[in-house]
Design brief:
The chain is of the alpha+beta class. Helix content is about 35%, strand content about 25%. The protein contains three helices and four strands; from the N terminus they run H-E-E-H-E-E-H. It has a four-stranded antiparallel sheet. Strand 3 and strand 4 form a beta hairpin. The longest helix is centred in the last third of the chain and has 32 residues. The termini are far apart.
């Protein structure tokens, strides 16, 4: 199991300096450190004071099984969730990394919804045409 300092050094080497870190006590499960690398949709790195920083960094979770969200205007967002042992907080027990281009996901969601709307409109129109051509006998 690697040391926390080694994991942070490897993450920094791979992704550059992180823009945000949030630490929390996970009780029995140890200590959790979440490191975030966040850009806007133009690829500009967001600093801690940027009004979109919290929203963009909170959208992407390290664990893929955790809820994810995306926001238009947020670009590539990376979150590394590092959990250390309670008995030895300098040793890493778990590392999970999530990465998403939030604007691309937002755009995909819009185009997907538009296609669903088109399919539904066609279904309704076809259903109406069938209903109009059905002879009603009372």
């Amino acid at each position: 199991m690697p040391a926390l300092a080694g994991i942070v050094a490897a993450l920094t080497e791979k992704y550059g300096p992180y823009q945000r870190v949030e630490d929390r006590d996970a009780g029995y499960y140890g200590l959790v450190h979440e490191y975030s690398w966040v850009t806007d949709s133009a690829g500009n790195i967001l600093g801690e004071a940027h009004p979109m920083m919290i929203r963009c960094s909170n959208g992407v979770q390290g664990r893929g099984t955790d809820g994810q969200s995306w926001t238009n205007g947020c670009g590539l967002s990376i979150t590394a969730m590092v959990r250390t042992f309670r008995a030895n907080p300098d040793v890493v027990e778990e590392l999970s990394i999530g990465m998403m281009d939030q604007t691309a996901m937002f755009d995909y969601g819009d185009s997907f919804q538009a296609r669903i709307d088109e399919i539904e409109a066609k279904r309704k129109a076809d259903e109406l045409e069938t209903a109009k051509s059905t002879k009603v006998k009372l």
